[in-house]
Amino acid sequence: MQKAYSFFDQFEILRLLPFNPIGNLDISITNSTLFLGLATFYIIFMCQTNVENGLVVPGRYQSLIEIFYETIHDMVRENISGKDGYRFFPFLFSLFIFILVNNLFGLIPYTFSTTSHMGVTVALSCAIFIATLIIGFGTWKLDYLSRFMPGGAPLALAPLLVLIEIISYLMTAFVLGVRLAGNIIAGHLLFAILSSFTWKMLMIGGWLALGATIPFAITLAVTLLEIAVAGIQAYVFVLLTVIYLNDAFHLH
Question: Is 169 within 8 Å of 148 (Cβ atoms)?
Answer without folding.
Answer: yes
